[in-house]
Amino acid sequence: MVQTSRVTPTIAALDRLDALRSALGGVALPLSIAGADAARDARGAAVRQIDDYVEPRLRHLDAPLLAVVGGSTGAGKSTLVNALIGVPVTRTGVIRPTTRQPILLHSPADAAWFGSTRILPGLARVTGTVREATASRAGEDPDAAQIGSVVLVADERVPRDLAILDAPDVDSIADENRLLAAQLLAAADLWLFATTANRYADAVPWRLLDDAAARDITVGVVLNRVPPGAEGEVEADLRQMLGERGLGAAPVFVVTESPLDDRGMLPAAAVAPIRAWLAGIAGDRAERARIAGRTLAGAVSRLAVTARTVAEARDEQIVTVRDLRDTVETAYDDAAARVGDATRDGVLLRGEVLARWQDYVGTSDVFRTIESWYSRARDRVVAWLQGQPAPPVEVEHEIESGLHAVMVDEAGRAASDAWQRVRHSAVGRELTAGVDLAHPSAELSERASLLVRDWQLALMELITEQAAGKRTKARVMSLGLNVITVALMVVVFASTGGLTGGELAIAGGSAVVGQKLLETIFGEDAVRRLAAQARDDLDDRVRSLMGAEAARWDALLTPVEQGTTGDALRDAASELEAAMREAARAPEPPSRELQRSDVIEAEALDDDAEAPLEGEADEVRELERGAGSPTERDR
């Protein structure tokens, strides 16, 4: 029976890896705040490494290793690669950069592994050949337009199960070369890092070597072009520096400066130790597995660190945008509060409003009894029905006009306040570039008018609901629903806070008369409830109106708030680490053949499994045939 104990944890780890990639891809970092640029670069590099290396290596643990030769400009990387193969395959020269397209050298038996987009899926594949030429003319002609491709060269001199990739300079004068070099190094199972006797202390190489130490990747360091006689001193200094950076176990290969032959090649003996080291790794299945596992574990650990760093940057983005949103909402909340104050302090009953109401209630003669006052009020209603002027209607219009004007003015003030406060910061100015929210919306006036009308209708509904009894309903009908509504509005708005002198006396008397009218119909407690409900309803409507004006900022702020949260990113990283630990604890299958067949069987049972990449179907058929395949050789 086929053992599948390791397959299930591996598939679980792949699922967690995919979740982390989705979380990283969903992180929004649009604001130019401190650390955002670095976080965006780190996020992009992490996603590329998942695609280029971590996912394909986790899915195919037994795939051949990829050794990337990297280093600074002029470190002699291409010369080393040519010497390792024994024939000029990659171009050398004094014109920089000489390597634009990376060249991947592999054994013909491993062509299926590298011909597909299993690794480095973002790079196009170009098939190259070894031709008779000097090192200065070897390889492809440098072409900046082909920077997004990799040249595949199959050669029998490359050991099976270990490919060699000649990468661009890590400190190239061309930005695209530097970015590509970093991407290729992140996709490596092991590094062969080349430097020279006079460049080994440069900052750029050491930043990459620090990253190698953090990833726990296997590194071989080539100290190239060392003057004869200085080997011991330079090597000792380099080893000390490596030890201080946590790379003390890295092998150091010293290549003494030697004349090149007529083909531009180093003597074979100069690179014999390097060739032997790589051949030893390629020929030892256990060592290959150890290196692949170590590099994979280190890459996942580094991914988790990067994810948490990006999560912190995401948190900063959220805090910043929430501060901006609070600024906007505060401006409009203050506007709603000012409208509320205006409806409480008597301001809306100034001037014509008071005069029209006074014409109706006649507060100059305080009524002796509620009954006599009610009788006179009823008589006035009869007079209105006979065609005389209708002061309550005018009062209603005056209140509507005043309330509308207050809301429009305060919304305009809020728009200006929010705009100025947001644009006080550099982030706010960047966020608002190309838009104008300093003024209220064009629909504000119409919305405010609708608000007043809807509120008045709601008051009528309140009064109608309150007039449930026959006697109360008869009184309301005798005066008219509109009159009762105006009386309730006057009670809601009348106060002494914003009035002085004669206005104060008139407003106070007006409110008393209006309230007495309502109390005569509904009772004191009912009037108190009606007034409170009417005011609360108006406050809610005003806040809603101001909220709609503030919502115009959503188009700028919401995209920043949407996407993966910092906590979700941290959780995805922790879950991947746990899944990888579980996969590492699972026992090894009895044979490599069983491991491959188990993975194939498990993927076939997965409804969501992706279709094989181009070239991988051939790879599987080759493995099944056993014709020169890695499986047959191990067996």
- Can you give the helix content as a percent range? 55-70%
Distance between the termini: 18 Å
3D shape: elongated
Give the strand order, joined by hyphens, for the main sheet: 3-4-2-5-1-6-7-8
Total number of helices: 23
Mean of residue pLDDT values = 79
Range of strand content: 5-15%
Instruction: Tell me how many strands there are.
Output: 8
- Radius of gyration (CA) equals 40 Å
Unreliable stretches, pLDDT < 50, 5 or more residues? Answer: 1-5, 93-99, 362-371, 381-390, 496-510, 590-635
Q: Could you give a short account of the major beta sheet? A: 8 strands, mixed
Tell me the structural class: alpha/beta
Domain Dynamin N-terminal: 68-202
Protein name: Dynamin family protein
Region (Disordered): 579-635
Biased composition (Basic and acidic residues): 579-599, 618-635
Give a structural overview.
Strand 7 (218-226), helix 7 and strand 8 (252-256) form a beta-alpha-beta unit. The longest helix is centred in the middle third of the chain and has 58 residues, at 285-342. With 635 residues, this protein is an alpha/beta fold. It has helices at residues 7-25, 36-59, 77-85, 111-115, 175-186, 203-215, 231-244, 272-282, 285-342, 352-361, 370-385, 391-422, 426-431, 444-466, 470-479, 481-493, 501-522, 524-550, 554-561, 566-585, 592-605, 616-625, 630-634, and strands at 65-71, 103-106, 124-128, 149-154, 162-166, 190-196, 218-226, 252-256. The protein has an eight-stranded mixed β-sheet, with helices on both faces. The model is unreliable at 1-5, 93-99, 362-371, 381-390, 496-510 and 590-635 (pLDDT under 50). The protein contains 23 helices and eight strands. Helix content is 60%, strand content 8%. Residues 579-599, 618-635 have a biased composition (Basic and acidic residues). Keywords: Membrane, Transmembrane, Transmembrane helix. Residues 579-635 are annotated as: Disordered. InterPro entries: Dynamin_N, P-loop_NTPase.
